[in-house]
Design a protein that fits this description.
CATH topology of the largest domain: Aminopeptidase
Structural class: alpha+beta
CATH class of the largest domain: Alpha Beta
Radius of gyration: 21 Å
Helix content: 25-40%
Number of helices: 13
Largest sheet: 13 strands, mixed
Distance between the termini: 20 Å
CATH superfamily of the largest domain: Gcn5-related N-acetyltransferase (GNAT)
Number of strands: 13
Strand content: 25-35%
CATH architecture of the largest domain: 3-Layer(aba) Sandwich
Shape: globular
Order of helices and strands: EHHHEEHEHEEHEHEHHEEHHEHEHE
Length: about 375
């Protein structure tokens, strides 16, 4: 470690709190930034309580210049990713750093060494536990506030990673669709075809009275629909059920659809109200009074984020994405509050989905990039 830099592994509750709050120093001048719900992240990064540590391991590090914290990073050995892909990839996440390439390298080198010592051959990120969590460095669209679960970074992070020897692994696109951008004529033609081929298919919203059964159906769809997707890892029935229970106060059943034929689940689409509209107002703090706006104003959220869309292989010619989008269009048209929806994120080479979104009036607002570097 060069003179002036000091790496401190996060071990104590006090160090964990410094790690948690450090981003406030880097983002206070960026009005689009949305702080996390600190109570949630505090639990996630605690090895005694975080779900990630039930199956995987991580090392959390702080970088100091003298007595001043100037960066943070987590090195993450995600065994579930490796079981699904066998690509030797470890992850770095929770990356925050001052605008100094030497500081970034002082952070990245010990994280890389930790991954290398565990037999991993690639460092990939930033990804907070997996690419299905907050992931990527923002390349453009800095004026757009991130929706729930999406990453937001300063413009200089790309340069820091490239200077440290990292190269592009994959770009993630963010699209939005509004009442005004909708292209009804284009969609009508696609819908006519979908309705002809989707014989016997029915769509329904989430049944909250049967959450265990719904979680099992969603896990089945996810396992098949995302099996070959770059970087995806399975979501189990227990995990779907836990998400539903943890966020039950903010779920809107109208935003979660399952497609079925003769009782067989064929596909699903999951969207959530963009609670970041409210989290930004309370600055990520639930206490002492931050919880009150979340509970009393959650029905006033105007934007939604669509983050899971999957169709089982045997149903991929039935036009289910078009039927799903019709539901959301109708919802936007009649809702007194929802006005805009975001598709995020979409892999840059998912050309079919991108083409569909653009044809109905969606437009790209942001690009995020995942970087990687060989550890040989």
């Amino acid at each position: 470690m060069s003179a002036g830099w000091r790496i401190v592994p996060v071990r104590s509750g006090r160090e964990r709190e410094v790690f948690l709050r450090l981003p406030e120093r880097f983002y206070r001048e960026l009005p689009a930034w949305v702080p996390p719900l600190y109570a949630d992240v505090r639990k996630q990064i605690d090895p005694r309580r975080g779900d990630f540590f039930r199956h995987s391991a991580g090392e959390f590090l702080l970088l100091y210049r003298g007595d001043e914290p100037v960066g943070r990073i987590a090195a993450l050995h995600n065994t579930r990713h490796l079981a699904a892909h066998g690509d030797g990839a470890g992850f770095f996440g929770f990356f925050e750093c001052i605008d100094d390439p030497a500081a970034a390298q002082a952070l990245l080198r010990p994280a890389e060494a930790w991954l290398r010592a565990r037999g991993l051959t690639v460092a990939r990120g930033p990804a907070n536990f997996s690419i299905q969590d907050e992931a990527g460095v923002l390349l453009d669209g800095f004026a757009h506030a991130p929706m729930s679960g999406m990453a937001y970074t300063p413009p200089y992070y790309r340069g820091l990673l490239e200077a440290a020897g990292y190269a592009k692994a994959k770009d993630l696109h963010v699209y939005r669709l509004t009442r005004e951008s909708w292209q009804p004529a284009q969609f009508a033609r696609m819908l006519a075809v979908a309705e002809r081929v989707a014989t016997g298919v029915t769509l329904r919203t989430l049944n909250q009275r049967d959450l265990p059964g719904e979680a099992e159906r969603m896990a089945t769809i996810f396992a098949e629909a995302w099996r070959d997707n770059w970087g995806a890892q399975p979501i189990t029935q227990a995990e779907f059920l836990k998400y539903a229970r943890d966020y039950r106060l903010f779920l809107d059943p109208e935003l979660i659809l399952l497609a079925e034929r003769a009782g067989e689940p064929l596909g699903m689409i999951v969207a959530i109200p963009n609670m970041n509209e409210l989290v930004q107002r309370i600055r990520g703090r639930l206490w002492p009074l931050g919880w009150w706006p979340l509970l009393t104003r959650r029905r006033r959220v105007t934007t939604i984020r669509l983050f899971l869309l999957g169709v089982r292989p045997q149903a991929r010619l039935l036009g289910l994405p078009i039927l799903f989008i019709r539901h959301y269009h109708d919802l936007l048209a009649r809702s007194p509050h929802y006005r805009e929806m975001e598709f995020s994120w979409i892999l840059e080479d998912n050309h079919d989905t991108i083409a569909l979104i653009e044809r109905v009036g969606g437009f790209r607002v942001q690009t995020l990039r995942l970087f990687e570097k060989g550890l040989a």
